[in-house]
Every structure is written in C-alpha cells, then in structure tokens.
Amino acid sequence: MTIAALETLRATVTPAPSPLPARVVPPKRPQGRLAFAANFLRNPLASIPEAVYEQGFVAYDKNRVPLVWITDPAYIKTVTLDARDDFSKAAQKRLLGPLLGNGILTAEGQDWKWQRQTSAPMFRHQDLLAMVPPIVEATEAYIAGLTHNSTGEARAIDHDMTRVTFDVISATLLPGGNSEMEHAIEHNAGRFQASTGWTLLFALLNIPAWVPRPGRSVRSQGVHVLRHSVLSLIAHRRAMSTKPDDLMQRLMDAKNPETGQQMSDEQLIDNLLTFYLAGHETTAKALTWTLYLLSRAPEWEAKLLAEVRQVVGDGPVKAEHIDKLTLTQQVVKESMRLYPPAPQFGRMALKDTQFGPHTVKAGTQVLIPVYAIHRHRKYWTDPDQFDPTRFEPAKEAKIPRYQYLPFGAGPRICIGMAFAMMEAVAILATLVRAARFTSQPSLNPEPISRVTLVPKGGMPMHVTRRA
Ligand code: HEM
C-alpha cells in the first residue's frame, strides 16, 4: 500500500457497504492436482471446495497423500479430544518447526505437557485482569500518535494493529521490546509467513523437506535473525540482578518434572518466539477484521460507542469493565467467526480412524477448516452476514461447542484465549471511543491464509479522532 494510495482515502465518507463482507469464493468442485496446488499456493482457503461448506466430511484423494476436511462438530471432537493421541501435529511441525522448534505449539506428548503446565499459571483469570492497564496504555499511546484534527488520516490498519498488540505482549507477558526485537519481528515474521505456502503444500503432499522450494533462503535468514534476537533477550535477562516475574522468567526457572532439567537456550528460544508470535499476530488480525466490519456497519459502531460510554465513561477501560462490555464481546466473537485469525489447522492420522461411515487411513492429513466451519451452510443462518446478535448470551449458549473454534479445542486449545479476548475487548473499546474508523465502499480484501488470516493488499482505512 503506497502513501499515495492511502492518501486517496482521505475523502472517505461512510459508504453504503456492499451486501456481504469480504469472503473467499470456493471452487464449485474439488480441483485436479495442479489447480489444487496453484490455488493452495495463492490462498490455501481458495483450495477448499464448496462441498466442505455443506457437508460434514469431504475427502480429496488426488494428492500423493490422502487429505480430508472435517466440519462435523462430532468429528472435530474426535480429533481434538476423544482420540487426540491418534493424531499428530506433523504438518504444523514441518511448517513452524524451523522457527518455533519444539516449543509449546509444536511439541507433542510429555515434551508438550510440561511446557504447557509451566506456562499455564501465567494465564490465570486474576493475573490476566491485572494486565488491563498496560493493554490500555499501549492503545492510548497509539491513539496519541494519530493526527489530531477534524479530517483525520489514512492508515494501514493491519500494520497499526500489529504494532499495538506487539507493544501489549511486550508490556505484559514478555520482556519489552528492545528495538532490535521489534525490528526483527516486524521484518522477518512477515517474510516467514509469506513463504509458508510452499512448505505447507510440501508437507501436505509429503514431499521430502530437502527438496528445494522457493523462498527457502529468505526464510532461513529470517529465522536466524529472529532466533538470535531472542537469544540476546535471554542473555540480557540472565545479567539482570532483580528479575521480574513474567512468563520469560517462569520458563527460565521451570524444571521438567521427569528429568529435573531446565530448558536449554534452544528450548527457551522456541517458547519465547512462540509466545511473541502466537501472542500478537492473531489478536492483531482479530482487531483488523473487526474494525473493517464495523466500518461497514455504522449501526454497530454506534451501539458499541454507546456501550463504552455507558460502561466506562470518560476514563480508561479497567479490569472491572471487561465483563460488562457485552456488545463489544459479541462483536469480537462474530468477527472471529467470519474471519478466524487462525483459519485452518490440522492433524495427521497415526492410525485408521472411523468418522461416522467414513474410514480415514493412517497417514491421512485431517484438516479442520475453521474458516469454512464458521460459514457452514447447515450450521449457521445467513453464514456470510455479519450479525453479532448470534452471540447474545442466550443464543451463544446454544451454539454447539465444536462448531465455533477460533481458539481450537481440546487440551491443545489456545493457552492465550482468555488473554486474547480480554485484550481485544479492551483495545477495541478504547479505539472506538477515541476515533472513527471508516473505509472505502470498494474495500473488500480477500481473506488469505498465511498462518494467520491476512487481508489481501492490507487494510487501508481512514481514522478520525473524536473531538
Ligand atoms: C485472537 C487471538 C488468538 C487466536 C485466534 C488463537 C488461536 C489459536 C489456535 C486455533 C490454537 C490451536 C492450534 C492447534 O490446535 O493446532 C492456538 C494455540 C496456541 N496459542 Fe493462540 N490464539 C490467539 C491468541 C494467543 C495469545 C494472545 C497467545 C499467548 C499470549 C497464544 C498462544 C498460543 C499457544 C502457546 C498455543 C499452543 C497451545 C498448545 O499447543 O498447548 N495465542 N491459538
């Protein structure tokens, strides 16, 4: 997005939005191998055939490796909970392993368990509530940097939200940005994400990792820079005389109950990078798509503003407000239904498994297309429409557990779920009260899966601070 292009947004008026917010148009039927691969590389979500949005189980057998998409909530429960030990994170490991090693997101078995147990206490409800003030401060610092006049300014909202959520993670769970870390993340995480298409495709097709593929050297350089930056943070922490009680320190002090050993530097880097990346990119995308949706639904923007003014008043959003901001929560949940920040995840079957009448052979890649589940024709009314009333408490209680999965499910459910919800609500409430976010009527960026769900071409919006 050039500055000139951003500037053309200056004259934005609130548009009459097109009927449906941005979406992926699925191919009518499963494609041949080449078309599948081409579509997959452009946007993995564009290779999901229409049948996946209509049925509970769709098999694709034109690859060297069989692949199935499951959307039936009962089948998802099988994979994520009931028979979880019969499935492995092989493809995810191959995709993210070079960057995140054997950290909490990619590890399995006992290796995973103790890392999860070590990290879990940082995510207790009461401890999280104490993090609301730094979250709000980071948001207010962003607002303070915006132009303060009546015409406002053009902004790349996707970048802005990444910056705010990075500032949040560094002010709460992890040591704060030295600028080297911030720079490394900003420049290399994006490069890494951009190059993931080939790796994931190779993993799904079971092509050996040594086979050359585009983007590999750029990716390796990025990985090196990121891991090196985290190592210097660890060295800095070791040299400190008084050590803060944060997630980094807990990870450094923890001992594996089986071996009694502490994490090596490599393991520490794996986990710290996991938390830096998983802990801000996803929430940034949730906020980006939410602001987009609100710009198309001025009536919801007005309702949100009224709620924030009534619950919070003029002061900063505080911990006690979070639960009372019910409409704000509904909007965030509905936004993550339409645009799940982690749009697809998967497991590989380790043994033959039965899904109702369907047998899945060992070695099959089982994909859980969260994006398609959240827009499934049989599970949702008007699935492509933005309608936050779906998450009114009484209605939300009726949504089957395995039909709404922005944070996954089972024991591998996102450890940062409560943190992310609280953060998104606090940031959104603070932003909406301080400024108006508008977009061009023609803004309809295709949602593209690049580990997280990114808007194709970015999210250019116009931001005007409220008087
Ligand atoms: C809106 C924001 C977020 C979304 C949509 C999201 C989504 C997810 C999903 C779907 C998974 C499960 C993946 C799988 O089963 O294969 C996951 C796991 C994980 N997430 Fe999040 N996440 C978010 C925010 C966060 C935050 C804020 C943190 C940390 C501060 C975090 C840390 C993690 C970690 C460490 C895992 C791996 C957990 C394990 O395997 O035990 N996430 N996330």
Describe it.
By secondary structure, the protein is α+β, with helices and mostly antiparallel strands. It has a domain at 1-30 and 124-173 and 283-339 and 374-467: Cytochrome P450 (Cytochrome p450, Orthogonal Bundle), CATH 1.10.630.10. 48% of the residues lie in helices and 10% in strands. It has helices spanning 3-7, 33-42, 73-82, 90-100, 109-119, 125-129, 132-144, 157-171, 179-194, 196-205, 216-239, 247-253, 265-278, 281-296, 298-312, 319-322, 326-338, 370-373, 393-396, 417-434, and strands spanning 57-60, 67-70, 87-88, 153-156, 345-349, 353-355, 358-360, 365-368, 435-438, 447-450, 452-455, 460-465. The longest helix is centred in the middle third of the chain and has 24 residues, at 216-239.
Distance between the termini: 28 Å
Mean pLDDT: 89
Number of helices: 20
Shape: globular
**CATH level 3 topology of the domain at 1-30 and 124-173 and 283-339 and 374-467:** Cytochrome p450
Q: Tell me, what is the CATH class of the domain at 1-30 and 124-173 and 283-339 and 374-467? A: Mainly Alpha
The name of the CATH superfamily of the domain at 1-30 and 124-173 and 283-339 and 374-467 reads: Cytochrome P450
Largest sheet, strands/sense/barrel: 5 strands, mixed
Secondary structure: helix percent: 40-55%
CATH architecture of the domain at 1-30 and 124-173 and 283-339 and 374-467: Orthogonal Bundle
| Beta-strand content | 5-15%
| Structural class estimated from helices and strands | alpha+beta
Number of β-strand runs? 12
Spans of at least 5 consecutive residues with low confidence: 1-15
Report strand order across the widest sheet: 1-2-8-5-3
Bound molecules: protoporphyrin IX containing FE
- Radius of gyration (CA) equals 22 Å
